[in-house]
Amino acid sequence: MTQPHHPVRVALVGAGGIAGGSHLPALLAQGDEVTTVAVLDVDEERAAAFAARWDIPAVFGDLRQMLDTAQPDLVVVCTPPGAHRDTVVTCLDAGAWVWCEKPPTLSVAEYDEIAAHERDGGPYASYVFQHRFGSAARALREHIRTGSLGAPLVGICHTLWYRDAAYYDVPWRGRWETEGGGPSMGHGIHQMDLMLALMGEWTEVRASTGTLAREVETEDVSMALVRFASGAMVSMVNSVLSPRETSYLRFDFPEATVELTHLYGYDNSNWQWTPAPHRATDSAADLGAPADDEASSHTAQLRVLLQALRSGRRPEASGEDGRRVLAFIAALYESAATGRPVTPDQLTPDNPFYYSMSGAPGFVGRPHTGEESLRA
User: Fold this and answer.
1) With contact defined as beta carbons under 8 Å apart, do 189 and 183 qualify?
2) What φ, ψ does residue 259 adopt, rounded to 5°?
3) For 297, how many CA atoms within 13 A lie in the half-sphere containing its CB?
4) The domain 135-296 is classified under which CATH number: 2.60.120.1440, 3.30.360.10, 1.10.3720.10, 3.30.420.10?
5) N or C: which end of the chain has fewer CB within 10 A?
6) In this structure, what are the phi and psi dihedrals at residue 29, rounded to the nearest 5 degrees?
7) pLDDT in tens, 71-97
8) Phi-psi region for residue 110, left (φ > 0), alpha (ψ -120 to 50) or beta?
9) DSSP per-residue codes, 230-291
10) The domain 8-127+300-314 belongs to what CATH superfamily?
11) Nearest to 72 by CA among 16, 13, 4
């Protein structure tokens, strides 16, 4: 385990937009807690340009060479989803912790395969679900835990985004084999993860999907009705066909309604705390809105991840906590395909949706070869 007074050595796999737009600023924000030692990309010229821009000392085109030479403590995986499983497994086997972009993997089976390569005390793989880590979401989670607003009753979870036809010109997008799904998998996963992290275990999903306007294999819209162990019911919509884009979550409690309206990230100003009529004079602060204001961000999640790495404990958005939303999405797709409600206990290795979000039997048993990890 890295000693507290030593910077955590970090390497990046993938030198695309998400690496420069979100991960490097998050790493820089950690100050002397981290040092970025290497970047890898199959396009080594792109990696070299990225390294020059961000003053990263080493550039690689081969993952195992990077792991052997740079010896990172933490690898940040910023590749397309089809490369996640093999990349993460290779890093874990080399002893490096991993922080991987969403969606975690193409299937629940791949996720469980990765988990088998973790060890007690680390290394662990965790996944980018940064919306959990803003101060308002953390405060609401505590209110739900303690019941200070009463038990949650009704929820809304909408990801209404817009992606035009040109967005899908990128070869891996819109295909089951390489993206794993449509907006339910690649877009709404952030809002759904936050909803599930707050509301707890789900018990049933009934869903429909459609491919209405984009020429893709996957859906371009999905809708779902979800029941939770608490008894609460939630309506979910995921779309890439919505010109007025918004991400909207709503939680109705006996004591208040709490709403979040944003697009790709939030701070406290994006939240609204409305008292129930019998508490009409209460302010947001009276209801428990936090005084501290930390935005949801890669920076906020990375800070928590580094604390876990230094102490050798499993971080949030890892293990069963990271698996929850992926299993839910598989159940959503199964319900849409079969027209039947799906419960968590149905997602077992004898179910084709365990191996592929499309339920295609051809995905069963796709072996780990080590080759996918090179396609950063």
Assistant:
1) no
2) -125, 145
3) 18
4) 3.30.360.10
5) N
6) -70, -15
7) 999 999 999 999 999 999 999 999 999
8) alpha
9) TS-EEEEEEESEEEEEEEEEEEE-SSEEEEEEESS---GGGEEEEE-GGGTT--HHHHT--S
10) NAD(P)-binding Rossmann-like Domain (3.40.50.720)
11) 13
What one-letter code names the amino acid at 162? Y
Q: Contact 252/154 with Cβ under 8 angstroms?
A: yes
Domain with CATH 3.30.360.10 in the chain: 135-296
Q: What does the alpha-carbon distance between residue 293 and residue 226 come to, in Å, rounded to a whole number?
A: 30
> Which helix (DSSP H) or strand (DSSP E) does residue 50 occupy?
helix 44-54
Which runs of E-coded beta strand occur in 130-240? 154-162, 202-210, 221-228, 233-239
| Residues 159/193, Cβ–Cβ less than 8 Å | no
Q: Which two tokens stand for residue 247?
A: 């991400």
Q: Which pTM was predicted?
A: 0.93
CATH 3.40.50.720 residue spans of the chain: 8-127+300-314
- In whole angstroms, give the CA distance from residue 235 to residue 226: 6
Query: The tokens 């090179």 sit on which residue?
Result: 374
Is residue 318 within 8 A of residue 326, CB to CB? The reply is no
For residue 27, what is the enclosing H or E element? helix 24-29
Token pair 């979000």 is found at 357
The amino acid at 307: Q
User: Tens digits of per-residue pLDDT, 126-172?
Assistant: 999 999 999 999 999 999 999 999 999 999 999 999 999 999 999 99
Question: Are 205 and 198 contacting, i.e. CB atoms less than 8 angstroms apart?
Answer: no
Tokens 């050595």 -> residue: 9
Residue 329: HSE in the Cβ half-sphere, 13 Å Cα cutoff: 34
> Which amino acid belongs to residue 173?
R
